Amino acid sequence: MTLARTPVDGTLAIPTMAPTTADLLAVVLNLPTTELPTKLLGQFGGLRRLCRADQQRLIKCAGLTQRQTSVLAALAELFDRFAAETLPAGEALQSPADTCEFLTVRLRDKPFEVFCCLYLDNRHRVIRFEELFRGTIDGASVYPREVVRAALAVNAAAVILAHNHPSGIAEPSKADEALTARLKNALALIDIRLLDHIVVGDGHCVSMAERGLF
Question: Which letter does DSSP use for residue 33 in this model?
Fold first, then answer.
């Protein structure tokens, strides 16, 4: 598909009739047709993975410019910030499903393991969401004293832990269970309740509290 340019400044116009993802990408990347976006979406397995792909790979293998890869990286960051606004500070969590949806959007496409904390007040209103530790594709080192320090710093009354599995499989491991038990005990010493530990895979998550794993 060839996209039309506006007569005023020559920029590409968004198609008015139900634009496809390739249509929108062509506009964002300032490409004259949807041929390359269509190819990239297939090659990288969809928009999420494309926007989070390594920039040098996009330049070398896909033929994009540095500016175009920067635009894709900016889109990924906007996705994260949009997701963050679905759990605004000061509002109470409505359901475990809402929490899982928020965490899935934030963590599902990370190529490395990320350990996060969602801090809540005594009415389960959101105080802050924070990425505390980053690791590799195989795991992340988590230090209980740092989790306790961070929770105290925001005066949290309760905490929901979360981390992703880059493999896409959300099943908690024995190491996840052992870590959760350690963190629950450490937080209990300062009267902070651990409500859940959620493991995020590719498009779904597992609540360790619902599984009775701690």
Answer: B
Percent of the chain topping pLDDT 90:
50
Phi/psi at 111 (5° precision): -80, -5
Amino acid symbol at 149: R
Radius of gyration of the chain (CA): 20
- Residues 6+ away with beta carbon under 8 Å from 46: none
Q: Which two tokens stand for residue 158?
A: 């309760």
pLDDT tens-digit map of 50-92: 888 888 888 887 889 999 999 998 988 887 777 666 666 666 6
What SS3 class is residue 214? coil
Strands 193-200 vs 158-164: parallel, antiparallel or unpaired: parallel
**Which is more confident, 139 or 149?**
149
How does 34-49 read in b/e, with b if 16+ C-beta sit within 10 Å?
Answer: bebbbebbeebeebbe
Give dist(CA 167, CA 161) in Å, integer: 19
Average pLDDT, the chain: 86
Strand partners, 198: 162, 207
DSSP state of 172: P
- 138/148 Cα distance (integer angstroms): 24
**Tens digit of each residue's pLDDT (9 = 90 or more) over 124-139:** 888 999 999 998 877 8
